[in-house]
Specification:
The structure is a single chain. The protein is α+β, with helices and mostly antiparallel strands and about 90 residues long. It has a single domain, classed as Orthogonal Bundle (Arc Repressor Mutant, subunit A). It is about 40% helix and about 15% strand. α1 crosses α2 and α1 crosses α3.
């Protein structure tokens, strides 16, 4: 079940193997501190880092990226910086 920081109390069932693969890739590409990555930079990095066997259709990476990013934000593992454009990094 993934949660979202945008809708507290809301959750969604997702494929556990794909979630874990994207979570590992995201934790690999996100920096540990500010200034973090923009959404486009994160997508570009994940397009290279996500396993092609799990995500052969690179167009689907954006959905999984956003789902995992929102869940990790809700769990306070990933931090959204209040910048323009928005940027994300791992929590300390």
């Amino acid at each position: 079940m993934v949660r979202t920081s945008n809708k507290p109390g809301s959750s969604l069932r997702v494929d556990a193997l794909k979630y874990e693969a994207m979570r590992k890739a995201m934790m690999k590409v996100l920096p540990r501190k500010a200034s973090g990555l923009t959404q486009q930079e994160m997508w570009d990095a994940l397009a290279r880092a996500a396993p092609k066997s799990m995500f052969p259709d690179r167009g689907k990476i954006g959905w999984w990226m956003k789902s995992v990013q929102l869940d990790l934000e809700a769990k306070k593992i990933v931090v959204r910086e209040q910048t323009k454009p928005l940027r994300w990094h791992r929590a300390k």
